[in-house]
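Data availability (excerpt). The following record was deposited with the supplementary files.
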Amino acid sequence: MRLIALGLACALLSAQIIPFESNGLLYKTLTKGGVTVMFAYLPAHLKEYSIMQVSMSNGSPVSWTVKPEDFTYHQLDGAVWQASSALSVVNTMLAKAGRHDVIKLVTTYERGVYGNEHMQTTNGYEARRQAALAYGVSSRLKAGAAASALALVTTKLASGESTDGAVFFPSNGKTLGPGTLIVHTGGETFEFPSDGEPSK
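Predicted structure:
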């Protein structure tokens, strides 16, 4: 009986949401089945998107594919926001973005990533950023290249690998209100209750 109770207590502890602050961003992290998901709201909107910075690591013995479409946000008022694919975000940047958008996007994201000791990824933003540096002359091409480096892309994570990226919710200029971020990945469902985007 004690062994069962101890096992249940360990399971509950391993599925506990842990909040922490880094570089002015408020993160929440949760581990289930060896897979860890971490997120924070980014303070700036970009065009019609609300943006979250996410990091995922695979500590399980099985490979898992992660993608932005794994993320949905369910507001208490019933609104549901599905994260956009990386390709959709890049196409929006190519069609509409300017120099200011590139600066805001990159500055906001890098402020969260660099110096965050909890985020050490093996194939995330920094690797994509290096590849994107060679792209583009026009501001729209630079915005597209920046978005392709920042956006969480579909990635297969082997055991011990991790990635990070921005997840874009097409909120049409609205802020995400109180609700729950739901992530279906690694054979698990991660639920993060949230007060919504912090006020600016």
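Summary of structural features: Residues 99-113 form the longest helix (15 residues).
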